[in-house]
Amino acid sequence: MNSLKCVATLVKELSRLPGIGEKTAQRLAFHILKLPKVEAESLARSIVDVKEKVKICSRCFNITEEDPCQICRDSNRNEKQICVVEEPHDLLAIEKTGIFKGKYHVLQGSLSPLDGRGPDDIRVRELLDRLKGNNVDEVIIATNPNNDGEATAHYLTKVTKSLGVKVTKIAQGIPMGGDLEYADHVTIGKAIEGRREI
Question: 78-197, which class in CATH?
Answer without folding.
Answer: alpha beta
